[in-house]
Amino acid sequence: MTLTARTIQREYPERPVVGIGAVILDAGKVVLVKRRYEPLAGHWSLPGGAVELGETLTAGVAREMLEETGLDVEVGPVIEVFDRITVDEGRRVRYHYVLVDYLCRPVGGALRAGGDVDAAVLADPADLAGYHLTAKATAVIHRALELAREAPRAVR
Fold this sequence. Notes:
Largest sheet: 7 strands, mixed
CATH architecture: Alpha-Beta Complex
Structural class: alpha+beta
Distance between the termini: 42 Å
Strand content: 35-45%
Helix content: 10-25%
Number of domains: 1
Number of strands: 7
Shape: globular
CATH superfamily: Nucleoside Triphosphate Pyrophosphohydrolase
Number of helices: 2
CATH class: Alpha Beta
């Protein structure tokens, strides 16, 4: 049996789960998704998921973006690497993710909610406060916008 992201014990794990995410930029706007499952169920966030066994980080990003947003993406540079650790009332680790977020651009597909999300939108960065993102997600988006300005995408 092949181990997949679906069979990894994410809640109360034995070890950290490697997660990948993306800031997908399109015409100055960013793709946000509303999470269907914990952690962050019902909240807006960046699209992403867990790396599957035998999958590279960039292949995982491309797969997760297609599954969750319907977009084929060009995977660009790493924006940031960080951990997200959530503990319960008894101080037991409920979730522990090591997250690697990438700057991505759509190269095909059409934006739609899929996979582990209930909604997907293209949001203006000036309107992020209305989505009640975590402080970390907002910081990652702002860093992605800086990266995009420093190294704009070549015209094809």
